[in-house]
Model the fold of this input.
Amino acid sequence: MAKSAPPDQLTDVSSFRNEWSVLLEAASPSHNSSRLAQLLRSADASRLIVLAEEHGVIGHLVASLSGLEEDALHPQARQLLMDRQRAQNFLTLRLTAELIRLLQRFSSEDIAALVVKGPVLAMRAYGDPARRGYGDLDLLVRQRDIRRATELMMAAGYQAAVPLGAIDAGKIPGQYLFSKPDTKLLVELHNDLTLRYFPRRLPIEEFFARQVRVRLDAHEAPALSVEDELVLICIHGAKHFWERLIWIADVAALVARQSSMDWERAAQSAKTVGAERMLHTGLRLATDLLKVQLPERVSAAVRSNAAAAKLVERILSWLPSAGYAPPGLVERAVFRLRMRGGVFSAPAYLLRLSLSPTEEDWQTDKQLSGNLLLDVLRRPFRLARKYSRGPRE
Done:
């Protein structure tokens, strides 16, 4: 097998056209094995593995190959994929075990927490917490419990990226990040104040009231309702400009597997936070690219949303490159406006995102800024520097 292509070649989308077609088929909940085998004949194995890894769909590709003839893919490439999948499985199993341990600690301290994405999403969407790769654990925790949760995490051996002094000073980060030295364990705590990309403030008490239990191995984890989870992952995809196929595959798999989803509740959940267009965009991507079937009434509503259709058209121009040919600074701003919509609400949304400081604005070299006005003014200049650099390194 030829040497793997470097990821920076993903800026040339045309050179990965055949491999992109393979991934779209493999990531579809209703993929066709015969068509997949045919597409593989025109794909370069090295490029395919690079593309699958960058888009986070190694697990989808491996699963789709299980029903094909051995010669459908070069043996060395197949083995490499299996090795990558095995490494992913080890990490996800370790993260799942750590999640159970942390939930027990939180429960013992009477700190309520809901699991978002990660192993719960993998179980709901794919029926297996190891099927989908993820590199961290995400928990929803009320702001009033953040200090105690931080102390708990530190007692469990984690280092807090946001120190207790910042919490006491009322600083609100993009997330409360915790890492365990010499391991790959990362945990993020979120709440209605940190999830800034929700157009309107997340109704955290309603999310807790609608919580359900999702079985992970021999344990049950508290999680969002499936409808709230769908809205959340669509907002998360929009936040990241839908630059990776895995986020679309998650929407498609969740919708396909959760046949009893209450679509009226999902629509109301999206409306409550002003994310109707974001939800429709995610669903449109899932139907157009991955052939997921929606109920007729839902499909009609999604198809009639012309603004979502235009957003999908723009997303498709950068999606195959997996973030290596991202939209420019101005296009990013325009996309933010359009995905929110509204003559007044869209500019207000963009302004809030541009001027709400996070830890990158008020924390440098572990020193906290004491001037909120400077933090606010510093943020747009930092964002301009960050997103004017072009393709990611």
User: Anything to note?
Assistant: The two ends are 26 Å apart (CA to CA). The first strand starts at residue 113 and ends at 116.
